[in-house]
Amino acid sequence: MAEPSPSDDDRERRFLERIDAGEKIEPGDWMPDAYRRQLVRMISQHAHSEVVGMLPEGNWITRAPSLKRKIGMLTKVQDEGGHGLYLYAAAETLGVSREELVAALLSGEAKYSSIFNYPTLTWADAGTIGWLVDQAAIVNQTLLARASYGPYARAMQRICAEERFHERQGYEIVSALAEGTPAQKQMAQDSLERWWWPTLMMFGPPDTESRHSEQLLRWKVKQLSNDAQRNWFVNLLVPQADAIGLRIPDPALRYDGEAKQWRHGPIDWQEFRTVLAGGGPCARDRVRVRREVQQRGAWVREAAEAHAAKHRTAELQP
Amino acid sequence: MSAPTEFTLWEVFVQEKSGAPHTHVGSIHAADAELALQNARDTFARRDKLVSIWVVEAERIVASRPEDAAGLFEPGPAKVYRHPRFYRPANPKQKR
Q1: Which residue of A215, A254, B3, B78 is 20 to 30 Å from B89, comparing CA positions?
Q2: In which band, very low, low, confident or very high, does the pLDDT at B2 lie, cut at 50, 70 and 90?
Q3: Residue B39 and residue B57 in contact, taking contact as beta carbons nearer than 8 Å
Q4: Which ipTM did the prediction report?
């Protein structure tokens, strides 16, 4: 006897029970449309960020000051490409195609982390990205590694393990400059001053203005609010900057002895909104470079396809 | 600009040490088996020492459906007599 099919309300109730019980949701499982849409949005933005993130650092591979720095930078950029692939694959399990995702990036309609719309002006910036930006990513991704959607959580676990190296190689670069000549130390200090506030903005708008946070926390896609993550990051960074003699560019930064926490000063959210709307110094350039790379690689994809087609035909011969 | 090429989806399994089972690590796209193996190596073997990689065309995998899980897997825990603890050999020297 056929059972009556459960209503969407029943399914949603059962879905939330599974989330509450700490179960992971897998690709074939029933999920609310809104959950699927939010995950596609988050995972694809995250994938695009990894891919675009290769560009500012890629600029410095040929100009790295030593062979050690060059192989470190090469490895890191290659990792970012790999991370993009893990994440595109996770997004695809939700029913979007790789081709749609790539097309959205190339057309400029896809969003990616606003941090990559800032230029890397000096060698110190190549280090600061690893130290600040990758460390901010680790805070965010350590939490996402526990996200309720299985493929996203698994991709994050792999990524987190690799990001530790990125953060350390970046901190090493900055610390070497900080104990170098006065000009080198100044270069490190200037770099920290350029990247500090944009990195804090990476965690997204304040909790009072975050449109998606409440729902994402309910679904256990997110585990901590934007402000809580930002605060965690600030508390990691203050002693690290202090240890290498650099000054965080926030006159209002203070230690809250009661809570045993560092508190940052007010953030200029107008700048964040401008950069997010594509107003960052490098926004157009990033997409233009991605398009050129896609075109230059077209012959490789065509050759691979032609080779595969030839072998499929050969197999059919008696 | 030409449309991006659509490649086949492959699932990737790696063996981390001799004697260990192959475990699923993710998926990649590639035009054929040879390139699938190469892409899997580039994507999933950048650091860790691996013993072997398998790639399988995703559409060749036959999988149970989530809605069938109750019927397929429910009998397991119910059959207590399939577990050693169900059996208690007599031991005259020990009071139970």
Answers
A1: B78
A2: very low
A3: no
A4: 0.84
